[in-house]
Amino acid sequence: MQALTTYPRTALVAGMMTAGIFALTRCVDRARENVQQVRSVKKPPAYADFAGSATCARCHQKIAASHEHTAHFLSTRPATPAYILGSFQAPDNTFSYDSGMVVRMEKRDSGYYQVGYFHGEEKIAKRFDIVVGSGAKGQTYITRSNNRLYQLPVSYFTAAHKWANSPLFPTYPVVFNRSITSRCLECHSTFAARISAPRADPEEFDMQQMIYGVDCEKCHGPGARHAQFQAMNPGETRGKYIIHPDSLSRQQNLDLCALCHGGRLHKTTASFSFTAGEKLSDYFALDTTAPNPENIDVHGNQYGLLRASRCFLESTTLTCNTCHSPHENDRGNTELYSRKCQSCHSGQHDKLCKLASDIGPSINRNCIDCHMPLKASRSITELVAGNSRPTAALIRSHFISIYPEETRKFLDGMTQPKHEYKRHVQRNP
Ligand code: HEC
Ligand code: HEC
Ligand code: HEC
Ligand code: HEC
Ligand code: HEC
Ligand code: HEC
Ligand code: HEC
């Protein structure tokens, strides 16, 4: 801070002494520019600034224990049997391509491998090194070759409990060398150190400096100093040198989630420069096109869609954290999510669902399927039991709105009289 304020002042004084008013203006401009540069070249976090969640767990045991079950923690993991969900037992360990290529998942002495056979002859074998995906929809896998990372051709699909061709991969030829970029890791991990030149492809990483999963320090900022301070000052009951999201503004909280849930962002600085509490637009050219509720991708622009919803536009407090508890795995708990809706839409407020009286009290258990329906993803595909090819995965739309078609589907599944809803649906074409 000191350096930031003295630099421009010195420049200003020097400018006043040596030149006329025109030069002065230019000088002030340059001084302002300098301040901006000092700020924008703020050192990105280094590996040494992080403590790792094993350290956080020593003092925040309860949070750490529940965080281990979240999709965030599981989003990237080392490829150990505890994390790879697919089978290595014949006959379930095989995926066959039309071309005659067969990929088998095999356990060998040095780890787990995807082995490519052509007419029974082994052609290629690559080790599973990193698991990507908690398995909510599926998992894909990374193999490393020295400092380079490549996505493997066969992925695991949870709904069908099967191996199949990785999403958007060609089926001929079968490729084992699709490179993994730092942007991919920026959304699926907490830290990775890129060591290759800026535009080198494939990129190279220092594998000793990788922090798996969307971990504590992605949301609370690098915490080595906090962990050290609290350990040295055990009597201190207040946390220092760490970010509590409750102390951030609404936009700062949203920006943190939008880093990975904000659709197509184009980075303007190196990956992993942004940290919690900062302004996303200082690091990325944001996606400002109005989101299309029918296109929920890359992979899911929850931020863009939420931002277009009336709940968001007409309240001053709604953020992702209103509905999502950061350290819990609440997947599938529709009733819990519906209670969050009712924190604003309840008897005390005037905007109550117009179907409440038709449906009765059971409406309280599920606001979600009618107002946040599942929509097909274009980039996440899923292999469903009985299908030979993956189909689009269904993702929860965050455009909270009125969907007559979903209402019809929902009510058709109920035993209630249906004349009432027809009236409602017709009013909202
Ligand atoms: C040596 C013990 C210790 C370690 C290790 C530790 N913390 Fe803390 N932390 C504390 C104490 C004590 C507090 C203050 C009491 C509280 O809020 O629980 C605190 C507070 C916090 C807070 C709330 C801050 C606030 O302003 O209220 C967050 C967030 C936090 N820690 C995150 C972390 C993370 C992330 C890590 C790992 C990088 C970590 N802590 C490691 C002891 C520790
Ligand atoms: C560093 C990137 C990153 C940040 C920051 C991030 N997320 Fe995520 N989030 C992910 C990824 C990746 C997944 C998918 C993980 C998986 O299933 O493998 C995910 C999954 C989720 C899920 C689905 C959980 C489930 O059970 O399927 C929710 C909800 C979520 N994030 C909310 C948030 C919220 C709220 C914030 C901000 C406080 C946030 N995320 C910040 C990357 C991130
Ligand atoms: C902009 C951030 C972002 C980027 C870049 C990104 N992902 Fe994701 N990924 C997510 C989020 C968020 C989810 C959770 C689903 C959702 O939001 O719809 C997810 C879900 C997934 C899943 C499904 C996980 C599960 O448990 O079902 C896989 C597999 C995956 N991503 C792989 C990749 C790979 C491989 C790359 C790089 C080629 C990549 N992703 C790039 C954010 C990202
Ligand atoms: C996806 C982002 C995210 C991740 C990952 C995350 N947190 Fe948090 N954390 C939050 C948010 C948001 C809050 C504030 C809201 C709340 O307390 O629920 C919070 C609050 C806290 C607090 C303060 C609780 C209180 O009662 O004041 C502590 C301590 C904390 N987190 C520690 C951790 C630790 C330790 C980990 C890893 C094991 C972790 N967090 C992982 C987002 C995250
Ligand atoms: C932070 C408060 C808040 C929360 C939480 C909230 N809403 Fe809203 N919602 C609003 C406000 C404000 C409006 C606009 C004014 C009104 O209708 O009261 C609105 C409007 C709506 C509308 C009308 C939309 C339209 O396009 O006409 C629906 C439907 C709705 N909310 C459903 C939900 C559901 C379902 C949830 C839970 C998943 C939810 N809301 C959570 C505040 C909230
Ligand atoms: C009004 C409540 C509400 C708000 C606000 C909200 N979500 Fe959600 N979110 C939900 C519900 C409900 C689900 C579905 C949960 C389930 O199926 O178990 C969900 C699911 C998700 C998923 C998993 C998507 C999937 O289908 O796999 C992600 C990722 C996610 N939310 C991220 C976010 C982010 C990021 C924000 C902020 C931009 C946010 N959510 C704001 C209610 C909300
Ligand atoms: C069976 C599907 C269904 C369920 C379940 C449902 N809604 Fe609705 N909701 C609708 C439809 C359809 C409308 C539009 C009705 C109309 O305008 O006549 C609506 C309207 C609304 C509105 C706008 C009211 C207004 O005056 O503009 C809000 C807010 C709302 N719902 C909230 C909720 C909440 C909160 C829940 C859970 C407690 C919920 N809904 C459950 C279908 C549903």
Word description of this protein:
This protein is of the alpha+beta class. The chain has three domains: 2-40; 76-213, no CATH class; 248-427, no CATH class. The protein contains 17 helices and 17 strands. Strands 1, 6, 7, 8, 9, 10 and 11 form a seven-stranded antiparallel sheet that branches. A four-stranded antiparallel sheet has the order 2-3-4-5, with no helix packed on it. The chain starts with a helix and ends with a helix. The site of one heme C has 21 residues, from β7, α6 and α9. One heme C binds at residues 71, 132-140, 151, 183-184, 187-188, 260-261, 299-300, 380, 395.
What descriptors fit this protein?
3 domains; 429 residues; seven-stranded antiparallel sheet; binds heme C; single chain; alpha+beta; four-stranded antiparallel sheet; 32% helix
Radius of gyration: 26 Å
Q: What number of structural domains do the residues give?
A: 3
Oligomer: single chain
Bound molecules: heme C
Low-confidence stretches: 1-41, 417-429
Instruction: Give the distance, in angstroms, between the N- and C-terminal Cα atoms.
Output: 57 Å
Give the helix level as a range of percent: 25-40%
Strand content: 15-25%
The outline comes out as globular
Largest sheet: 7 strands, antiparallel
Number of helices: 17
Please give the number of β-strands.
17
Q: What is the SS-derived class?
A: alpha+beta
Overall pLDDT metric: 84
